[in-house]
Design goal:
This protein has helices spanning 27-31, 77-84, and strands at residues 2-8, 23-25, 33-40, 48-59, 66-71, 91-100, 108-109, 113-117. Strand 3 (33-40) and strand 4 (48-59) form a beta hairpin. Strands 1, 2, 3, 4, 5, 6, 7 and 8 form an eight-stranded mixed β-sheet that branches. It contains two helices and eight strands, in the order E-E-H-E-E-E-H-E-E-E. By secondary structure, it is mainly beta. The longest helix has 8 residues, at 77-84. Residues 12-19 have low confidence and may be disordered.
């Protein structure tokens, strides 16, 4: 099984950041995230996967959702812009996440992440 997390500048191991999987998060903490990372669960070593693509549904408070397509694990361009402008009440859904893990010949689907800014 593959687990997805938000990636901050201090992320190094999925066991250290269980709160970054999904849920409520402060605007400051969310803005500090650099992208998405993925690990294979239940391995004796860190089996880090490469994020290939995802869809971000960004819903600003009291506005219509915006759909953005992401490529790679690092937030770039418009996705980086909407992450950096996170405010209380905004919602972010990272769905249709595709990753490639060690030994994979092709990408695989990973779990979605949902965040509400408090």
């Amino acid at each position: 099984m593959t687990s997805m997390f938000l990636m901050s500048s201090t992320s190094s191991n999925s066991d250290h950041y269980p709160a970054m999987k999904t849920g409520n998060i402060s605007a400051g903490e969310f803005k500090a995230q650099l992208g998405l990372i993925a690990w294979l669960d239940d391995f004796d070593f860190d089996a880090k996967c490469t994020v290939q693509s995802y869809t971000l549904y960004y819903t600003p408070r009291r506005n219509d959702p915006v759909t953005l397509q992401g490529v790679g694990g690092t937030f770039n361009g418009k996705i980086n812009q909407v992450v950096r402008q996170a405010k209380s009440g905004d919602q972010y859904a990272f769905v249709n996440v595709k990753v490639k893990c060690p030994g994979d010949k092709a990408g695989r689907k990973a779990n979605s992440l949902y965040f509400k800014i408090r």
